[in-house]
Design brief:
With about 140 residues, the protein is an alpha+beta fold. It has a single domain, classed as 2-Layer Sandwich (60s Ribosomal Protein L30, Chain: A). The protein is built from two helices and ten strands; from the N terminus they run E-E-E-E-E-H-E-H-E-E-E-E. The strands form two sheets. A five-stranded mixed sheet has the order 1-3-8-9-10, with no helix packed on it. Strands 2-5-4-6-7 form a five-stranded mixed sheet, covered by helices on one side. The longest helix is centred in the last third of the chain and has 15 residues. The relative contact order is 0.21. Keywords: Chemotaxis, Hydrolase. One of its GO terms (molecular function) is protein-glutamine glutaminase activity. Pfam families: CheD. InterPro entries: CheD-like_sf, Chemorcpt_Glu_NH3ase_CheD, Cytotoxic_necrot_fac-like_cat.
Length: about 140
């Protein structure tokens, strides 16, 4: 098994089917996971700010293309985007709106999302099964997508 622990502003793409991607401590950050449903190529990113989303998504898509993926076969799962700090800027909401907008613009199907709220969470994506699990830090609640 290949495992990636994606820290803030990190991303990874793998052709290895048995790959796991982890994004820990997603407050306002977004954990984005992509999988090509025909080739099995997968990837993930831990996105900090809405301004970085176009760059991160374009970089991921280029890596998918370079590994032989047809971008029309991509499926996305996303988590995070909470407003954990009451600053009035609502960075979590801005991140959520920006990532969803960019995925739609790129015609990437959004298969699952766990976004918003006020609690931080950690997300894990298993490329082999396509399953995303989300665990909330404060409540220990576990969701599976």
């Amino acid at each position: 098994m290949r495992e990636f622990k994606l820290n803030i502003d990190e991303q990874a793409v793998s052709t290895y089917e048995n790959t796991v991607y982890n994004c820990l401590g997603l407050g306002s950050c977004i954990g984005l996971f992509l999988k090509d449903r025909t080739t099995g190529i997968s990837g993930g990113a831990h996105i900090l700010l809405p301004q970085s989303i176009p760059h991160v998504l374009n970089s991921l898509l280029l890596q998918f293309k370079n590994k032989g993926s047809n971008l029309l076969n991509l499926r996305a799962k996303v988590a995070g985007g909470a407003n954990v700090i009451a600053t009035g800027y609502e960075v979590g909401l801005q991140n959520t709106n920006a990532v969803l907008e960019h995925l739609v613009q790129q015609k990437i199907f959004i298969a699952a999302k766990d976004l918003g709220g006020s609690l931080s969470r950690s997300a894990q994506f298993h490329a082999g099964t396509g399953e995303m699990t989300v665990r909330f830090s404060q409540t220990k609640e576990l969701k599976v997508y």
